[in-house]
Fold:
Amino acid sequence: MKRFLLVLCCVASGTIAQVTNIETPGNLKSEHDVGCISVEQVAADFSPADLFGGISECHRDRSYDKAVELMIVAQLRGEFDKLRVADKTAHQAMQVLALQTQDAGGRRYQRQMQEAFQRFGGTGSPHHTKLCQQVKQQGLPRHSPSYMIQHGMKAITGFEGDGLVDDFNDQRAWDNLLKTYLKCSG
Structure:
């Protein structure tokens, strides 16, 4: 039995693949150090990568309600970027940003954010209604999706053009996300 385990360990260790992490310039890069800001202070050129930095700051400041609102806006803008970035492998950028933020927040991050989400309420709650009004007032995002484009495989293997979907109608996509993703009325 010991011999079998020894052979199994030797075989298994020889078959473990070598993992190489390749970073491209601009991968998940934040362009603006936004800090722990309120949703009213979110500028049209703040990307999800910028906002995730703000979420981390809010968590450090114990401003969990602000962190949740920034998380919702970051996720909304990330969904917008998923629609306009052509390389589908790049779309994982949002998951990676969320995991990095969670890891940086430590053991209590998930519980504290869950509690803040519960305080925020669901669709139609006063917080939700106010957030919808603020996001609509800010209008169409104008941030660069380069943080996401540079995260995809095509940033390594090469792509032609700017990495965006051809003939993308940004206003129509944004209006649709406000209605279907964020579930804002009117």
Observations:
- Residues 65 and 118 are 10 Å apart (CA to CA).
